[in-house]
Each structure stands twice: as structure tokens, then as C-alpha cells.
Amino acid sequence: MSSVGVLILFAIVGAVICAKCRVPMGAVVFSLVALVLFVATPAGQGLPDAVASFLSTVDESTTPALNGEAPAGSGAVG
Predict the structure, then answer these.
(1) How far apart (Å, rounded) are the C-alpha atoms in residues 32 and 20?
(2) What's the mean pLDDT in 35-51?
(3) CA–CA separation, 74 vs 70, rounded Å?
(4) Per-residue pLDDT tens for 51-72?
(5) Residue 29 and residue 42: Cα distance in Å, rounded?
(6) 3-class secondary structure for the chain?
């Protein structure tokens, strides 16, 4: 499992090299590989839950504004 950190580092370096050479698809692929490798590590296993929780909070916050409703308990008139 110790070599995963080296693979992540190489993927990030590859993404930077592709970005400097103006090869956007290569940079995206290297970035996705680095993300997948990071999520596979014990440190990154909580990342999907954290992103889901963040998006859920944003959705709950913006839905009343998008529907034209006042948030529950706000005391707003209208």
C-alpha cells in the first residue's frame, strides 16, 4: 500500500505536464487516476461521503430559494 502514494504523485505530475503541454484530455485522465487512487487509500475513503453530505446540504439550502418558498421557521412573509 505504500506505493500508492508514489502512484498518486506520478499521476499528479502527469496531469501537470499534460496541462503545461496543453493536452487537456491527458490532464483530465491523470487527475481522475489520482482521484481514484486517493479514494482507494484509507485516508481518502471518507471523501465520497463528505462530498455527498456537502451536496445534500447545498441542495437543502437552495431548494426553497429556487421554488420561491420561505425556509421553514424563518418568519418571512410572502
Answers:
(1) 17
(2) 90
(3) 7
(4) 999 999 999 888 877 777 665 6
(5) 22
(6) CCHHHHHHHHHHHHHHHHHHCCCHHHHHHHHHHHHHHHHHCHHHCCHHHHHHHHHHHHHHHHHHHHHCCCCCCCCCCC
14 CB neighbour count, 10 Å cutoff? 17
Q: Output b/e per residue, 21-57; b: 16+ Cβ within 10 A.
A: eeeeeebeebbebbeebbeeeeebeeeeeeeeeeeee
Q: Are 30 and 15 in contact (CB under 8 A)?
A: yes
